[in-house]
């Protein structure tokens, strides 16, 4: 798994640290050398002082060394010694007999003891021979007192410290401004490089005076401009292919080709114990409006119907609207009909309220029916056609809507109680399906799938999450999934684990705060967790989604956008979104052999994503033939029944 954590000290920290270190070393070194030099000078001065005193005093007392006048010599020595500049004076005869001896204590009260210990002075002792005529009669030794020298050395050291400190401070301030001028453009280069890694192309407008930095910035700006140009070119090409193949030009909705492709792929996403809903909407007055009022009025009629459809189903996640021909629309809802029948009835009532003289055959007809993964598209379309041809005065919903296979039919409060019980005492059975690199050998990560049980009964996932979305409880379900599934990270599963994240959690600040605390407590999960986010959920608010995805990335969580391409506007949000993987919608893969035009779309996706450093995953691989086609199209990874069926944990 690619890690984007930036480790190590920054260049700015290293340079500032080096400059401060060298400044302090120079400061200390200069101070020590200066004080040591002064200490040596003072030692020499004390030696010279002692020698002068010994010589002059020796000449002065030489006539008074006999027994009768020795008291005069002693008085003269005491007078000089008592001045306080001497540590010791000693007069000896030539035979070594001590005639006079004076000693002063070495204590110095005006200088700190630590300074004396660090810069110890060694006052030299100087000796002068005393002559009586041509005969040497004794020796006078004089040792200077270090007190005055210590005081002078302390005064000099203090002044030198202050002077060198201000020189150091001034030098560091000057160095700071110089380095800031150099490093500020470098910081912008770093920011630009990080932005490119996050699929954001920004221009660095810094103009440094450093020649090398200027060259680097110009090169990066040129590279970013070229990458952006290539990205924009490939994006326009891919969007053009998509629009021509899968979008209705008038409404911007997916067309019949897109419906056939996506519907067949969606059947495999429905488990055996789940059902979904399909509805057909006809505009019976469209032909008369076109003939009598013109095509512009007809287009306005179609667009008003589309607006009503979007309003009616905007709160139901997983709803897709298709325009399969002029006045016919298909709506697929990834929920059992028992959960969405209120919206269907409300829409039908709205259609009835719009009936007036402008629409002689009525504004719209609406019929709906549930379906399971065993149903075929052809059979469902026949059922819908049969319903729509019947009396349209009342909404027609196939009677099997209320059958046992249509899912749990319980009230909203009962659903809330059920979901809360699942979160507190319910059992989760986990399955996993690996996503393998295109060689079908190395596992990229394991996608985790969940089955929820309560009272030993399986709760259909599409119903469970649909009701949780209405009750604003999907965040709690996600937390339950993550906390339960994370145990497998360090036990049963050695690979990175992928968990599907709901729309509510994606846009929730409180979920991020919980996740931040959870990841802090479970550091072993860092860099081993992937969130798979449905493209439809992402498009609800791309700006907020981008913000939260960036926050997830700071926690070491990788991001994959699944069902990529279902919106047919997927490329517009890629730039600026820090993704690691995108998983192509199964509709582009499942029937790739019969719909070779999908090749161009997949190639365009690969080119755009690879230019951004995003890995492309092809799912719904169900045969070796499909796998070989995917390899030729240069996808990065694969997943599906042919690769490995979901396996229980």
Question: Any overview of this molecule?
Answer:
With 649 residues, the protein is an alpha/beta fold. It folds into 3 domains: 11-169, 2-Layer Sandwich (Beta-Lactamase), CATH 3.30.450; 256-406, Reverse transcriptase/Diguanylate cyclase domain (Alpha-Beta Plaits, 2-Layer Sandwich); 412-648, Alpha-Beta Barrel (TIM Barrel), CATH 3.20.20. It has 19 helices and 19 strands. It has helices spanning 11-61, 70-81, 113-118, 147-197, 211-246, 256-267, 286-293, 295-313, 337-353, 377-388, 412-425, 461-470, 474-485, 503-506, 509-521, 535-538, 542-554, 598-611, 624-632, and strands at residues 86-93, 98-103, 125-132, 135-144, 276-282, 320-325, 328-333, 365-371, 396-397, 427-437, 443-454, 457-459, 497-501, 529-534, 557-564, 581-584, 615-618, 637-638, 647-648. The strands form 3 sheets. An 8-stranded mixed barrel has the order 10-11-13-14-15-16-17-18, surrounded by 4 helices. A 5-stranded mixed β-sheet has the order 6-7-5-8-9, with helices on both faces. Helix 5 packs antiparallel against helix 18. The longest helix is centred in the first third of the chain and has 51 residues, at 11-61. It is rod-shaped and about 155 Å long. It starts with 10 loop residues before the first helix and ends with a strand. The model is unreliable at 1-5 and 398-407 (pLDDT under 50).
